[in-house]
Amino acid sequence: DTLLIPVTIDFNLLSNISGPDTVCQNDTVVLSAEFIAGSNTENIDYLWNNQETNDSIIFIAEETIEYNLNISENESCRGKASKKVIVNPSYYDTIYASICDNQIYNDGLFNVDSAGVYTWHGTSSCNCDSIITLVVEEYPTYDTLIFDTICFGQVYTQYNFEVDSAGFYVQ
Fold first, then answer.
1. Which residues on adjacent β-strands are paired with residue 98?
2. Phi/psi at 159 (nearest 5 deg)?
3. Are 31 and 57 in contact (CB under 8 A)?
4. Mean pLDDT across the chain, nearest whole number?
């Protein structure tokens, strides 16, 4: 006599999460469920740790985070996978500066002598885009002659001067 006992083998259908391991800040990223070849995926339910329920997710990379995916079929766990996506910084900065009409603004990145908006495009040490914008306002210089008198022994202290004798002074 032969006794036949039906045995159901629940096996993992999910092999991996496909997508980039490292991205730049503000990149658009797509992660997708990657199944074992030949798997039937018709009745699969997906649940990502961000509560998405599709076989793939699309997001804007803001910070390094680990993404987890659980798949099930008829409430039976059929696989789990996780993927850490490392987000490298991109630099976007704006510098506001002012100069007099006879000055040069120089910070090692920019060297300008007039008002305007200047942009520097580069890459960070992680090969991520970096954009620095410089906004320069230019102000005129003024020459003002001040004629004043003091008595012998007095000190003239107006307009940030401190002089005690007659003469021509420049500040």
1. 137
2. 55, 35
3. yes
4. 88
pLDDT digits (tens, 9 = 90+) for 50-80: 999 999 999 999 999 999 998 887 777 778 8
Nearest one of 28, 65, 29 to 49, comparing CA atoms: 65
Question: Count of alpha carbons within 13 Å of 12, Cβ hemisphere only?
Answer: 10
**CA 23/CA 128 separation, integer angstroms:** 8
d(CA 62, CA 159): 52
Q: Are strands 91-100 and 129-139 parallel, antiparallel or unpaired?
A: parallel
Tokens 């002598």 -> residue: 113
Rounded Cα gap, residues 164 and 171, in angstroms: 16
Pairing verdict, β 28-35 and 56-60: antiparallel
The residues, any chain, with a CB within 8 Å of residue 167's CB and separated by 6 or more, are none
